[in-house]
Amino acid sequence: MAQAHQTVRGGQFLASDVGPNDVFTREDLTDEQRLFGRAASEFMRGEVVPREARLYAHDWDLTRELLRKAGDLDLLRLEIPEAYGGLGLDKVSSAFVAESMAVNPSFGGSIGAHTAIGTLPLVYFGTDAQKAKYLPKLASGALIAAYALTEPQAGSDALAAKTTARLTDDGRYYVLNGQKMWITNGGFADLFTIFAKVDGDKFTAFLVERGMGVVSGSDEKKLGLDGSSTTALMLDNVKVPVENVLGRIGEGHKVAFNVLNFGRVKLGARNIACAKIALAHAAGYAKERRQFGRAISEFGLIKRKLAEMSIRCYVGDAMVYRALGDVDRALEAVDPHDSAAVLTTIEGFAVECSINKVYTSEALAFAVDEALQVFGGNGYSREFPAERAYRDARITRIYEGTNEINRLIIPTRLLKQGLAAGGSGLRAEGKGQRAEGSGRGAKGKGQRAEGKGLGARDGVVASERSLLGHAKRLALGLLREAADTYGGGLKEEQEVLADIADVIIDIYAIESAVARTEKMCAAQGDDALAGLAVDATRAYAGDAADRIARAARQVGRALAARDRGASLADLSAPIAAFGGIEGIAARRRIADAVVAGGKHPL
Length: 602
Description:
Blueprint (H helix, E strand, L loop, with lengths): L30 H18 L3 H5 L3 H13 L18 H10 L4 H13 L2 H6 L2 H13 L4 E4 L15 E4 L5 E12 L6 E8 L3 E8 L5 E2 L13 E12 L3 E2 L5 H37 L1 E2 L2 E2 L4 H33 L6 H9 L2 H26 L9 H9 L9 H18 L41 H25 L7 H31 L3 H33 L7 H9 L6 H15 L5
Parallel strand pairs: 1-4, 2-4
Antiparallel strand pairs: 2-3, 3-7, 4-5, 5-8, 6-7, 9-10
């Protein structure tokens, strides 16, 4: 029997309950989706990994050859419409393929830049003629794409771009002049989405072929991802036909920011996959490395590292696939040929995209750092895998919008959505939340009992459900009090906004993990994996409660300095009082499973 799902709208999770049957999890992947992922994994291990040294030596001819081979396996055409040589698949399928390519982040970056930010602007904003001209060749790998937004003086402030576009006197061409920076695939791409200002102020996107005059700079000498091409682009009187304007004149921001949303949510899947790889390397080394007469995997502090890496992978998976599933479900109700409706739908999930970008990049940063620590001195050596993973991961907190920018997006966009509703929605007191935040249990029942192991099916994470309800009410209170206190000046209070964002990120993380665990327990019963899922969820929630309470105190103190925010103390009290699970034993159980299997067990 098909499961009934509640309608999910982007950015509304603070004001509604989400139960286990309302979320998509990686356990829900279909055989077809897993088949695409397996094909991608086999391609990476059979074709890419054996040639890694040539990629790191900047053999871009090889990169192009590998991209064409990926095209032969249909890996470049997943999200391209069938009418233009693609498969027209969902976001979950595309992200699962991206995850499967994480074994080499450099090539994963090259193919991701082509299939996501390189191709999707054309998919969603192109005319029929533009799509017919370029998409079939992008699907096959005959053309390689790149996305050119950043400039030397315009990074996070993308709309400060200086690149100009001037219409020729005959009205047939736009002449582009300027420079772009940090362009992935910049050294060898054939087709660029380039942003420039028409008449100096109308920010606009253009489809620009290399043969129109684009000149690449030398490859950047980067900290990591040194097997991918990253260059500047020089635009010196580049003549672009008027028919290559992408979207509308002056609406380039719609192209730029919506495409970044696509990239953020799929980047999350790749980030968590890289974290799992780091964990597997650490677990393997910990079993082999002996100190004081035994394997270091037997020591408590090593177990804690392995367990915490695994917990963050479990929670990250829950968050990413929940968001992807919600987007796909929302898109099912939209005419796929109505680009405006598709874009509006995806844009509605901008908050979830930013949440996932921040969480997964920081989970990856934690994982590669702890993995290197497990390797000890050997972790600092290029003879071992931890060093490269550490370097490759660092960029993920910077590109696709810095984590600082994404933290600001989260609360400001939620407030904008609430204010637009005329005082309802997010400005309300969390209408629709049960008094104890109970939501639906694993079998559709309210969760009110304190869970006593897996046998208490409806109460297995009941205390975490209760925590979640209190945390949502606190977040709504923080948003309301901050908006009322600072008014239009709130955008300048970045520290306050970031603390509120951290509360919201942890709420989304807890809820995603709780719903995934309830769903897993209902499906699998009292098996070992369900037990590990419960341990991971409860351990994470306990630490998250401490973080939420601390962030709320920080905001409360800032508001108190203005004689505001008195109500926050009552909202924070249940969070600060949350007892949580006995974390040492839970983490040891998780670590033992990691060591036994040599990888993330969930």
